Amino acid sequence: MTTATIRPGDRRISPVFVGILAVTAVTGWATWTGFAEQPGLAVFLFVTAAWVVSLCLHEYAHARTALHSGDISVGAKGYLTLNPAKYTHVLLSIVLPVIFVIMGGIGLPGGAVFIERGRIRGRWRHSLISAAGPLTNVLFAAVCTAPFWLDALDGVPRDFRFALAFLALLQVTAAILNFLPVPGLDGYGVIEPWLSYNVRRQLEPLAPFGLLIVFALLWIPSLNAVFFDVIDTILRALGISDFDSYCGFELFRFWQTAEICSVSP
User: For the CA atoms of 99, 229, 172, 206, what is the dihedral angle to 10 degrees?
Assistant: First the structure.
């Protein structure tokens, strides 16, 4: 077994991650019960903490898949602890994604784990390692939207419903962005093992700028409209209305909550 040399401490869940889970649970409870004096603040903390949890799970999925594919170095690097500080850089992996959530309601892909690809044999394994992260976002989105597509919203408080809708929007945007076949993103990592050496060599210099290129393109109004039309179509297929996702975003930005969201349609 390739995992035999992994020390028990390399797998121990980080107290930092446990603390983030606790914040998610407490603020989720406050959102559900209406206990918080400022509901928007509770939604902001709940969604932010849950989003950070999803970022950690995304990177953990990469690392765990790499471990079982042959890269036992991920344990010593701390990738199996779910500690957000271990995933590349706190600024790139946590702070910037949260800022983008606040600014535009877009699930910015977090950093990345450094996989020693030379330890891994087989193109399918390389592709699966890259796909594992965004597939985690897909699973997270399925959980968030379950009450909607299962028609199980009876008894779910309005603010909690809005929060789930917005959190689902973030997961869907993160999954779509991550799956784009652009150098530097997971989607490219899925197809890269199947490309010729010359093509990979030509595209490699673009990897540090891939995400910047994508967001520059999203600033083009027509492309931005197409992107969010796709997001809205997916969310509606999952039972989430435009009103729910819009109010989730507005409630998340509690400092400027829209009055229309104070009354359910």
Answer: -70
- 150: how many CB neighbours lie within 10 A of its CB? 9
- Catalytic residue flag (residue 59): yes
Query: E strands along 155-237, which residues?
Result: none
Q: Which member of 37, 59, 192, 250 is catalytic?
A: 59
DSSP letter (8 states) at residue 185: S
Q: Could you report the per-residue pLDDT of 190-231, keeping only the tens digit for each? A: 999 999 999 999 999 988 888 788 888 888 999 989 999 999
pLDDT in tens, 50-90: 988 998 999 999 999 999 999 999 988 889 999 988 876 66
Dig out the tokens for 91 from the structure. 């600024």
How far apart CA 218 and CA 48 sit, in angstroms, is 23
